[in-house]
Design a protein that fits this description.
The complex is a heterodimer.
Chain A (H helix, E strand, L loop, with lengths): L1 H21 L6 H33 L11 H23 L2 H27 L3 H25 L2 H11 L8 H28 L3 H6 L4 H23 L5 H13 L4 H26 L6 H19 L4
Chain B lengths: L1 E8 L7 E8 L4 E5 L6 H8 L7 E6 L2 E2 L5 H4 L3 E4 L11 H7 L2 H4 L5 H13 L15 H14 L4 E5 L7 H18 L2 E5 L3 H7 L2 E6 L2 E7 H4 L2 H8 L4 E5 L2 E5 L3
The chains are: A mainly alpha, B alpha/beta.
Keywords (chain A): Cell membrane, Membrane, Transmembrane, Transmembrane helix, Transport
Protein name (chain A): Iron chelate uptake ABC transporter family permease subunit
Subcellular location (chain A): Cell membrane
């Protein structure tokens, strides 16, 4: 039943991808197709990364409302980006773009996220309200610090940061995309081998430990994974606050299962489907008259509220 | 046998346990009793390694529990916590299946499935296997968690207030099942119980705690006397024999 739904999701995604690639294909079609293929790859990567990261984070925090974005993961990434440009100057920062830049950013992001969120999850696990509050405060702090740094910058640096923050699927850095896909493949490989233990971890720290799971070590690894996935998604398109929540709610209500072997692929497929469909609508129907984030958060918000009222999401 | 020596827990200024020395026999039911805040659940959670002690040692058949490999320990000792709830939506059958994790790492074989069916039948969960945990009553959920620990098939079973949420029928059945597991299968069972009569009429051994110290311990018939219980709870307790079993009268 759940497996059949996964196949159906895959079919929908393939249809959406085909629509995105071939709708309104005119003129130098080989060239346009290549551009669209790169964009499609980025959309798929970001959607899958955001979906999987959110499901993983909700498993760790034992909570279905929290997402990495609410807890300030992507704000942290933007702060690091801004800090990099502010620290090195526009010339220095432009020298480390491409693959080395991506690697450096990801490494810094991993270290910072681990230091912060290991402590946060450890201290506030028993108290969800406290965890949400701490996450929201952290997110606001990162955002204000980012804004503060941007005020101190000179205009050329600021332009650079802005270009990095709002890349939005138009000018995609192909080297970064490749590196991101590589990183996601590694993450996927790890998940393929370890999805069973995540099912146990979802029971919570106490029960998981009494079943012999080395929970703290597992949590460290999964946090690494989340930080890497959020970095990929944010590096490619900038922050998308609502996508993760929508995707994980849909994945849970569609799969009706605790098994990560079903939840994670579902989240990846739904995330990718939403982004591809949203981008198609945004480019072909709205003629770029808005931003993709607005399309997704507007439609996604309605869908989320609708499902919530209908009792399909709990 | 579980040997506890000099076990301390809590900050030095306000310790919760001050150097506990106790011996818990294998193949018997041992009840941890004592007034609120005596440290019963803390002691149970320390044995279950859900908490890390400030000092002292716990040995299981001579092996230091604090050094033991978690995955290996999970095949020897199962734990049912007090507030058992889960964040994810799990079906009863899958929850009990998690009890097989230490043996099969999530890949349930024929033997594992048989153990799950066995646990379902033993704890009266037939017909509820496909239900989600959050759709059950507190008592049903409690029984599902106990069934999961049972499916873990360990020599030791630790239960923190297992009678909470259970009605008369299920409370009594549970104690009878634990009795059966201790007698027929030689399992060592440690329970925290508040109801004194359940403790003294079903268990073989008691460890009484008061203010983070052991007040008395030993076989029920010898250790749990009316004077000691009266002092332990600071409430007059009269012990009478009812069908050859001790019965405590303390209600009024």
């Amino acid at each position: 039943m759940a497996e059949r739904r996964l196949v159906a999701l895959g079919g929908l995604l393939a249809a959406a991808a085909a629509l995105f690639l071939f709708w309104g294909l005119r003129g130098p079609s080989a060239y346009i197709l290549e551009l669209r293929l790169v964009k499609l790859a980025a959309l798929l990567a970001v959607g899958a990364a955001a979906g999987v990261a959110t499901v993983l984070f909700q498993t760790l925090s034992q909570n279905r409302i929290l997402t990495p974005s609410i807890m300030g993961f992507d704000a942290l990434f933007l702060l690091l980006q801004t800090g990099l440009v502010a620290g090195l100057g526009a010339a220095g920062a432009s020298r480390i773009s491409g693959l080395p830049g991506f690697a450096l950013e990801t490494a810094v992001m991993l270290a910072a996220a681990l230091a912060l969120f290991t402590a946060l999850l450890g201290r506030t696990r028993h108290d969800i309200q406290l965890m949400v509050l701490a996450g929201v405060v952290l997110g606001v702090m990162f955002r204000t610090l980012t804004a503060f740094l941007q005020r101190l910058m000179d205009p050329s640096e600021f332009t650079m940061v802005e270009a990095r923050m709002f890349a939005q699927f138009s000018g995609i850095d192909r080297a970064a995309l490749l590196a991101g896909l590589g990183l996601m493949a590694l993450a996927g490989l790890w998940l393929l081998r370890n999805h069973h233990v995540l099912d146990v971890a979802a029971l919570g720290r106490g029960p998981a430990r009494s079943l012999g799971v080395a929970y703290d070590r597992l949590q460290l690894r999964v946090l690494c994974l989340i930080a890497a996935l959020v970095s990929v998604a944010t590096a490619l398109v900038g922050p998308m606050a609502f996508l993760g929540l929508l995707v994980s709610s849909l994945a849970h209500s569609l799969m009706q299962s605790h098994r990560h072997a079903l939840l994670l692929p579902a989240a990846a497929l739904i995330g990718a489907l939403i982004l591809v469909a949203g981008q198609t609508v945004f480019e072909r129907l709205l003629h770029l008259q808005s931003t993709l984030a607005v399309v997704i958060e507007f439609c996604g918000g309605f869908l989320f509220l609708f499902l919530l009222v209908k009792g399909k999401i709990r | 046998m579980i040997e506890i020596s000099g076990l301390r827990f809590g900050p030095a200024a306000h310790p919760i346990l001050h150097g506990i020395d106790a011996a818990i026999p294998a193949g018997r039911i041992t009840a941890l009793i004592g007034p609120n805040g005596a440290g019963k659940s803390t002691l149970l959670n320390l044995i279950a390694r859900q908490l890390a002690p400030a000092g002292g040692s716990i040995r299981l058949d001579g092996q230091d529990l604090l050094q033991a490999e978690p995955s290996q320990l999970a095949r020897r000792m199962a734990v049912v916590a007090q507030q058992a709830s889960v964040g994810s939506r799990v079906r009863v059958r899958d929850l009990i299946g998690f009890g097989r994790w230490p043996h099969c790492r999530g890949r349930l074989g024929a033997a594992d499935r048989a153990a799950v069916r066995d646990a379902v039948a033993l704890f009266g969960l037939e017909g509820l296997e496909q239900r989600f945990l959050d759709e059950l009553s507190g008592g049903q959920r409690q029984r599902a968690f106990i069934a999961m620990a049972y499916a873990q098939d360990t020599d030791w079973l630790l239960l923190d207030e297992p009678l909470n949420n259970l009605d008369l029928h299920h409370a009594r059945n549970l104690m009878a099942q634990l009795r059966q597991l201790a007698q027929a299968r030689g399992k060592g069972i440690v329970i925290v119980v508040h109801d004194l009569n359940y403790a003294i009429s079903w268990s073989d051994h008691v460890v009484a705690l008061q203010g983070g110290r052991v007040a008395f311990q030993g076989p029920v018939a010898e250790a749990a006397t009316a004077e000691r219980l009266t002092a332990l709870y600071r409430t007059p307790v009269m012990l009478t024999l009812l069908d050859g079993r001790p019965f405590a009268q303390y209600h009024r």
